[in-house]
Amino acid sequence: QVQFVESGGDLVQPGGSLRLSCTASGIDIRFYIMGWYRQAPGKQRELVAQITPSSQPNYVDSVKGRFTIARDNAKNTLYLQMNSLKPEDTAVYYCRPTNYAAWGQGTQVTVSA
């Protein structure tokens, strides 16, 4: 059974930082383009960052220069370092391979003063 378990979400003030983790089981992530997605209240889920098997990253414009995606294939884990957080980054964050259909439970990130 394939599972993705996201963690690290929290309530943080604007300008703060968080590091999200996503540990996969039942799948070897080293072969996949992995993505971090988010869904804000009342909005569509969006892909915010992805990373190829060779660790080439790509970001949506709204997070460029603030978020960094990384992978540790030995730990079967994906990371998202989020700096200079803004209230508009508030969302539930999910990870999965970009060509997969299933979702994990996500982790809540709330940016508020």
Would you report the number of β strands?
Answer: 10
What is the residue-averaged pLDDT?
97
Q: Low-confidence runs (pLDDT<50, min 5 residues)? A: none
Strand order of the largest sheet: 2-10-9-4-5-6
Strand content: over 45%
Structural class: mainly beta
Which word captures the global form? Answer: globular
Counting copies of identical and different chains, the oligomeric state is single chain
Compressed to H and E, one letter per element, the order equals EEEEEEEEEE
Distance between the termini: 40 Å
Instruction: Let me know the largest β-sheet.
Output: 6 strands, mixed
What helical percentage do the residues reach? Answer: under 10%
Radius of gyration: 13 Å
Total helical segments? 0
Observed structural traits:
113 residues, mainly beta, six-stranded mixed sheet, four-stranded antiparallel sheet, 0% helix
Description:
The chain is mainly β and 113 residues long. The protein has strands at 3-7, 11-12, 18-25, 34-39, 46-51, 57-59, 67-72, 77-82, 91-97, 107-111. 0% of the residues lie in helices and 48% in strands. The strands form 2 sheets. A 6-stranded mixed sheet has the order 2-10-9-4-5-6, with no helix packed on it. It has a 4-stranded antiparallel sheet with strand order 1-3-8-7, with no helix packed on it. A hairpin with a 5-residue loop joins β5 (46-51) and β6.
